[in-house]
Amino acid sequence: MKKGLFVLAGLAFMGMGVTSQVQAKQNVCVFDLLGKAGETFKVTEEWAVAAKEWKADIRLISYQDEAKAQNDFESGKCDAVYMTSMRARKYNRFAGSIDAIGGVTSNHVAQKAISFALDKRNKRRLLANVDNQNYEVAGILQFGLAYVFVHDKNLNTIEKAKGKKFAYLQYDIAQKEIVDSLEMVAIPSEISDFVKKFNSNQVDVIASPAYAFKPLEIERGIAKGGAMFSFPVVNITGDLIIRPEKFPTNFGLQSREWFIQQLPRSFALVKRLENAIPTKYKLNLPKEDEVRYQKILRDGRIRLTKQGVYDPIMMSVLKRARCTVERTSFECSLGGE
Questions:
Q1: DSSP tag of 285
Q2: What are the b/e assignments for 250-268, b being 16+ CB within 10 Å?
Q3: Are 107 and 267 in contact (CB under 8 A)?
Q4: Dihedrals φ, ψ of 28, to 5°?
Q5: Domains (ranges, CATH) in the chain?
Q6: What's the pTM value of the predicted model, to 2 decimals?
Q7: Per-residue pLDDT tens for 3-46?
């Protein structure tokens, strides 16, 4: 009889443990340029509601300062963080390499790459252990392709850009490597201040997605003879990084499936924002220059992959995506990626 009571007590205790795990709240740091008013934050609000079905209880914390969001995640204030993939590469090189310099040449290519990365067959690649901490990529969303903005539209070749100041995101060593290789002056910046530097003439050139055009007032920096060159130099995605032990079993898999379903909506938003940039500012480069710059960026990616910055499997995925969409591209018959 006593033995039976002990068994029942043990089962009750185990049941309490499971219940407390389900009821525990998960704090998630969310970076969005516009804070709670931003489209990204709105998507994560919907994700948090959906997560209740996966036995999670999400509390979102909004950040307009990406570095602060990362610091709070690392200090343990948050159990997960949503931020740019370039910054999240520290926690997962495979997913963080989607945004390799020049690796995505259109939104069509980007959608193929993200869909592949989130596929259940890549579950193992989306798990990583860094400094004895476990991390998992639980979602990826598109911010948009980043285009080059200049104060002077005559600054339309790499040769003319030599010696000019370029605001790069200081946590992405890949950007600095490329800027240095082009003999431009690399000015370390954050998402919170790179456009301010451009608009106040501290730098001559920036690369930005359309998502930032209106809220950060990029038009102020190009209104007097400037331009946006319609040549994407880098893709910008956002990664949701979680500490899997803080979430219910199989949470990451269920979360990724939800994010895959959001991709059409995410890319529709990107297209709408790109179309909203006034046509008068958009300039196309000659085709021969585009190919020349693609070759330069390709050489840079290969170097950075050899240095361990980019994941080689993701580089092959991106090339396959590019050559599926752009079958006649010069690179499709080349090896190296």
A1: P
A2: ebbbbbbebbbebbeebbe
A3: yes
A4: -125, 120
A5: 17-143+236-275 (3.40.190.170), 146-235+277-333 (3.40.190.10)
A6: 0.88
A7: 444 433 444 434 444 433 444 799 999 999 889 999 999 999 99
